[in-house]
Amino acid sequence: MKTLKDCKKACRVKVVKLNADTDLKQRLISFGIMKETIIEVIEYSPTKSTIEIKVGKMKIALRANEAQKIEVEKI
Amino acid sequence: MNEDMKACPITAKHIKVALVGQPNVGKSMLINSVANSHLHVGNFSGVTVDKTEVIFDYKDYSYTVVDLPGTYAFTDYTIEERVTHDYLSAQEYDIIINVVDSTNLEKNLQLTSELLTMSKKVVIALNMSDEADRENIQIDENYMSELIGVPCVKVSAVTKLGIEELIETVSLANETPNNGSKLIFSEAVEEEIARLVWYLDKHKYESVNSYRNIAINILKNNKRTYEKLHDNPIWTELQPILIDASRHIELHHDSDDIKECFAEEYASFNRGVVAEVVKSKLLEEKVTMTEKIDFILIHPTLGIPIFLFLMWGLFQLTFEIGAIPMDYIDMFFSWFGNTIGSTIQNEDIRSLIVDGVIAGVGAVVLFVPNIIILFIGIALLESTGYMSRVAFLLDGFFHKFGLHGQSFIPLVTGFGCSIPAYMSARILKNDRDRLLTLFIIGFMSCGARLPVYVLFAGAFFSPEMAGNVLFIIYISGAMFGLVAAKILKLTAFKGVDEPFVMEMPKYRLPSVKLIWHTVLTKTMMYLKKAGTYIAAASLLIWFLSNYPHNQELEKEYNSKIEIAVSEDKKFVLQNQLAEGLLEQSYLGTIGKFSEPIFAPLGFDWKMSVALQTGLAAKEVVVSTLGVLYALGGDVDESNSSLVNAISKHISLASAIAFIIVVMIYLPCLAASVVFTREAGHIKYFFYLFMFTSIIAYVMAFLGYNITLLVV
After folding, report:
1. Looking at residue B285, what is its pLDDT?
2. Interface test with B, best of A15, A23, A43 (most B CBs within 10 A)
């Protein structure tokens, strides 16, 4: 199982499943992150604890912990 | 609309508009443009955390626009989202203006599609259309209106394009009956909606909302609809149908979360709309300006040094540029005091006006230039989009101290003023994280403390160093805050962390007008406070420091002065008298009383008093020192300014301890009230009081003794 956390900089992936609890899932969904969404990894923060991703035209920052809960596949 | 209120001609033609949109789409800015062109301007700060109402007239109608906090979706995730959701579903209003960002339509429509299922009249304002033009994004608004079934108008809050058309559309939509939107779901969902509608229709269920609307809401697990139906006899029959319907939809979406299913439904509808109405000539992979800037600003190694450099620059500017007009302001107030003073015969009243009010207020007004620069800096930080980059850079670091990356936003706001900072802590969803942030905000030195720092930095350091000293004061305040956060996180606020998911908005050149507006409002507030609150406090302090008059002491010294031969001797005696009188006064008594408490920190009673009056407002610290040292026998003409008085009377070690206390102890009265309100219970105020007092005392004690050892 591959998660968003495992993705390298500049890689593009498709969301397969959100393995998050209801709260986080709602939060991700309201940012447009759901099944079939295409995500591009833009940048890592200095300690690699935070990831910047691009969904559509929006850039979103999220913690590696949260990224781990997003199951993705290569496209 | 308000049929029963038609008796009153003013309310009869009234339209109440709810302004809704995702965060950062320029709602407040739009209101500004709308109201500016029709007077009655409201009072805005950069971020809307609570609903704000603006009233204006246009043609035959009077409009009330309610600016609601930005929300990504109806998820009740943060307090702001709850404010918006509650308002929209429970309050009375006529029409919704949904503001969307034309440059990112698909994402914005996510909220729009939820609004469309509310059976309220909606007008969509396609904001930032000027920006969309520049990015070669073309939206066919007529086709979009037709597809969605609600009017869409292209506007730009910046260039004021389409503002009038928007208002006209609103009044037109208000007059025409609500046709409902054309939002359609997938076949599976539509099938279930039809089944529920048929059922409701069969039982002639009474409701103001349409059956379709009820069906959608109940499928989405909407609490309000649910509760209403639950008390109705038809519920027993409806329930199995509903369970069956939900199962069908969940199966269709391969998910066990009905909300996720609906989110996917909305998303696919939106994708369809965007595909039809948006023509983008832009090449997909072109690197945008934002990406170019981000390449440098959030660079893994350069990002943080750049941020620190920018902050350092801000404090340098605050001191360097702020110092230029200071001499003139100082000169003006001493001239003003002398001029006014010479016209007043009565010695007591003259002293009241000159030494009390003018000295007190003057000491505060002196720092207006510094305050303006600091406010401009923070307004820039807030409006360019850089703030979220810093949150991104610092989240890892903050997280180590138990804080949330998004805590950064209220914390930075705290450098301006603690009050909006306490309010903006609402973006944190988790109560523990929010409380923790609330406790730490006070460590970020607010604008009102700046005068104290500038005063002391100017008194003890050369002008070249003073800017650096300011920077160090602010940074170390923040560091104390982080350590305090860690302590609190390990003790009082243990628990699971809140997820960190945050939008990084596009960089925008801030509009000069908006910055001007924000800075002007805040500066006027500061001046108003100086003119009213602080003038009154100065009066009180003057009174407390002049009374009771000790006749005996006066007599004794006056006779001594008379016998004295040389001018020098007279002068010394006069000073001694003034000093003695001050010590005998009410304020002196209070100061003397509390002096033993502050003695280990090296404070004299004047400094002790200044700290206590500072509990009302931090500016009062400076005005108290101003009054006390103006009265306190320092009559030597060449030494008239407060800066000189301080460098003469206070040792470096005491000054450092004093700064540390000001840095850490309880924020002003107004901020404490807001803190208590936001924290939700009075007990938190006492905790805050204890917490900050103890830390302030201990740190100041250390600071004092270490300086004594080193210097």
Report:
1. 54
2. A43
